[in-house]
Amino acid sequence: MTAENDLPQRTKHVELIVNGKRVQGDIDSRMTLAEFLREELGLMGTKVGCNRGECGSCTVILDGNPVYSCSVLAVEATGREVLTIEGLTPEGKLDPLQEAFIEHDALQCGYCTPGMIMSVKALLDRKPHPTEGEIKRATDGNLCRCGAYPNIIKATLAASEKLIR
Q1: Which backbone phi and psi does 65 adopt, to 5 degrees?
Q2: What are the pLDDT digits (tens) for 90-135?
Q3: Which CATH number do you get for residue 126?
Q4: What is the structure's pLDDT at 163?
Q5: Residue 61: what are its φ and ψ, rounded to 5°?
Q6: pLDDT in tens, 40-95
Q7: 59 beta partners
Q8: What distances in angstroms separate CA 145 from CA 20, 22, 42, 64, 128, one per listed residue?
Q9: How many domains is the chain partitioned into structurally?
C-alpha cells in the first residue's frame, strides 16, 4: 500500500502571460489550459464543447499558434503567451474580425464563435490576405453546428480587407 506522501505532487506553480498580463497560481497539475482560463481567471469567452480536442470551441492562441486549450495542460503554458477572445481588444471594443462576423452573419448560436475567431485571427496574423482555401484549412478543426461556414469565410475575407487598409 502506498502512503499518500509517496504519491507524485499534484499541485504545480504556473506563471504565464494571458492577454498581455502576467498571471500565476498554484494549480492541480492535471488542470487544462481551458479550465485554468475559465475557473482560475474567470475568462469565460473560451468555450468548452467536446473537451476532447475535436470541436475547436476552446481554441486560443498560444505563442502565436491556435491550440485547443482543452488539450493543453496549464502547466505546459508556463512561461508562454496566451491570447483569448477577451484579449483581442482593450476596453470591450470589438476587433475588426468580430465586427466582420457580426456584419456577415457568421454567428448564429455563437458557441463556436470565440474558437473560430481565434483560429482566423492566428491565420490573419500570419497571412493578412488569405485565400478562401487557406481560410477553410485554418478553420477545418473548428466545428459550427449551425453551418455558418460560408458566412465565416465571407467575414474573414472582409476583415482581411479592413486590416489591409
Answers
A1: -120, 140
A2: 787 899 999 999 999 999 899 999 999 999 999 999 999 999 999 9
A3: 1.10.150.120
A4: 75
A5: -105, 120
A6: 999 999 999 999 999 999 999 999 999 999 999 999 999 999 999 999 997 878 99
A7: 68
A8: 32, 35, 26, 26, 27
A9: 2
- Other Cβ atoms closer than 10 A to 47: 21
- Is residue 46 assigned to a domain? yes
Alpha helices for the chain (secondary structure H): 33-35, 96-103, 113-126, 132-138, 149-164
The one-letter amino acid at 162: K
The answer on 83 and 14 residing in a single domain is yes
pTM for the model stands at: 0.91
Reference 163, options 86, 102, 98; nearest CA is: 98
In this prediction, residue 162 carries a pLDDT of: 85
Domain boundary among 87, 117, 148: 87
pLDDT of residue 91: 81
CA distance 77 to 63: 9
Quote the CA–CA distance of 115 and 15 in Å, as a whole number. Answer: 23
